Amino acid sequence: MPKGLLTGTVPPVALQRRWRDLVDRRLPQAARARPEWPVRVDHCFARILLDNACGGPWRESVAPPAWANMPPDRLAFAIDLGEAVLAAKADLGLLNRRSLAWRGKIGRAVPTSTPASLTGQGFVLRRWIRADDAPFAALNADPEVMRHFPSTKNRSESLIEARAIDRRFESDGFGPWAVEVPGEGFVGFVGAMRLIRPMPFAGGETAGANVEIGWRLARSAWGRGLATRAATLALADLFGRCGVPAVVAFTATGNTPSRRVMERLGMAFSEDFLHPALPADHPLQPHVLYRLRAEGAFAEGGQAPTDKAPEDHRS
């Protein structure tokens, strides 16, 4: 999440008006002709869209009223998601189940049983714990680690992100695993995320249709092939236990180290695109997209290459 999530930044008036029109008029009006939709009234549409834009109950990261206090990029995300619902490019039932599961109103949104950990060579992928908060905040405050993000993150933003990451296991059955190295402890995360925001690349317009593999590691963990090895283990679990047929990965065009990790994983370059969360004049907006299908992945003995060229944090 970009900076400003907890600072009460007010979105532009035009964005606020578009949001109010979407949830107060357009979605309730469309619901009259959509009997399969699980909700009908404005505040329910707002809950679903805001929770999915925030990766959890929106009140945990934004002071009410959300339309006034939601950072512009998050509100734009929620609006994009609402537009996708109207265009039948997002499953409102799925989004609602994710929201209700995060709020404890229903059981987990998927029946898949998630293991507590996966063991690799010299590292463990595991679920997140509160002891990860401090090293994760330090990682997110490091300008070198975050050089392919719009900015570093403060501690509050890091805590919100950590909670949102771990919730993905409850809603999807998979997520970005915490990476622990014996004798070093938490060094970052590696794993998969279901893409809820509609994205401007082929097949990305349908919310939730794509799964992204990504990583972010502390500098102390760079240069030893850890991102590649950990991503290989995460992908094996994703393709096997979870039955996900394919993944994508993307990063800023200039992030050569992360692109090398994608290539070591056997991913193929697909296309260039402009990231919708960044303004048109932002140097990080140009992105590259890579793809990998489960069929034939890691065909040579089930392992991706593990050479120790420098690795970066973001995909």
TrEMBL record:
Matches recorded under Gene3D superfamilies: 3.40.630.30
InterPro entries per the UniProt record, alphabetical: Acyl_CoA_acyltransferase (IPR016181), GNAT_dom (IPR000182), N-acetyltransferase (IPR051531)
Domain of life: Bacteria
Residues of the N-acetyltransferase domain: 123-295
GO molecular function, one term: acyltransferase activity, transferring groups other than amino-acyl groups
SUPFAM superfamilies the record matches: Acyl-CoA N-acyltransferases (Nat)
Name of the protein: N-acetyltransferase domain-containing protein
Organism of derivation: Methylobacterium bullatum
